[in-house]
Amino acid sequence: MSSPRSFPRDFVFGAATAAYQIEGAAFEDGRTASIWDEFARVPGAVINADNGDVACDHYHRYREDVALMRELGLESYRFSTSWSRVRPDAGAVNPAGIDFYSRLVDELLEAGIMPWLTLYHWDMPQALQERGGWTVRESADLFTEYALSVHDALGDRVTNWATLNEPWCSSFLSHIAGAHAPGHQDAGEGLLAAHHLLLGHGQVVRELRARDESLNLGITLNLTVADPVDPHAEGDRNAARKLDGQFNRWFLDPVFRGVYPADILADIRTEEPLALKRLEAAVHEGDLAVISTPINTLGVNYYQGEFVSGTAPAVPPIELEAPTDRAIRAPWPAPADIHPHERGLARTGQGWEVQPEGLTRVLTRVWEEYAKPTNTVLYVTENGAAYDDEVAIEDGQQRVHDVERTAFLRSHLGAVLDAAEAGVDVRGYFYWSLMDNYEWAWGYRKRFGIVHVDYDTQQRTLKDSAMEYHRIIRNRTLSIPTYTGVPLYLHTH
Ligand code: FCB
Questions:
Q1: How many CB atoms lie within 10 A of CB 411?
Q2: How would residue 417 be classed by pLDDT, with cut points 50, 70 and 90?
Q3: Pick from 24, 242, 327, 447: CA 20 to 30 A from residue 287's CA?
């Protein structure tokens, strides 16, 4: 690219985190276990048996972290509240727990950073899991109660509210594949969990809207592009349809149109008839109307695309989930004939493909088919990459020359600009993640941050990618790359 490209005037630059991944203080001030505290202790479930007991110790260091955000020039910070902190065991409100978020929000506002709050980033109270978790309807009601208590405390200062982060992960990846908490492997459970998560989403949107018309309400979905290996082969097209249907449309269709996709319902009827019966019994009249309550914003999380065929490749593709000791299954309620293939794209340090143009296509497709017809706007609420960073000491200072992450950030911001220039109403971008953190089943092994965290000392170091992001935010342009030459440092730490 030879000339600088500008971002729209109101475009919001941010970074994202989630409660369990950064907070630590897992059993302090009244917080009790969530399903991730429990799952992390299941032998073999998480690499190195890592857990979130301490994580980035953000609970105690949030002031320092907000100061870092301010230095970076972040305009918004996307974080999640922990249900187990706010309402331990899904019971009464814990004043000390909610107070933490109140202080965090004050600190952000003081720094001129707009809070972007997610109510559920996968950490249901373990006590509720023991009553059936997301597979029981009661969870949607208790989630609504919890959401209202967060709003009671923060509604005077927080405008941007997302109900759920990536319900695909907290349903299919967690209850069918078994890769995430609670680690179950049952197609019926996955479908029930997805339904009750979405029901909780719809209920919360209704209640918050009734309380305050002016709120920016939404949900964050992880979305992808599914390309057939051979677009002329029927089996490959079918694999792409099934993947798209069970990753994207299973969540987009109920939220925007009040229906589950008919083709996938038919697939499940063939492959898992009992699971479908359980879903049908769980869907009450009126549920889909609640689920499709209008929202203002769809948060799009995008990491990579999918390249699939109806036939298995000769050489098995790279395994993308964490290589833990527990066997996991395919994350689909209708898994037959979906086979990922290798296509030779560059991969991140976690094996995920680097495919920025996929982000342009995801945004364009979701805008045309779902958001534009319903007056919903888009934000990229997560996008980022893990690489095996190395800390160098130069002139007595710590440096992380994360050239690949810097290129990843730039190419994906370019992809967002491509979509915006094509008429997509995409209003912001949140890099995942502000800092290295607990990457679920990967434990602390995978580093996504633009800020490096030394887990022994809790020292934070801005990586080169953070410096580049700072420059982009300050200039509001994606200029000619500077990171390939001598990195420009903002300051020394
Ligand atoms: C997303 C999650 C986020 C983080 C990134 C890498 O699926 O929402 O918490 O783990 O992946």
A1: 16
A2: very high
A3: 242
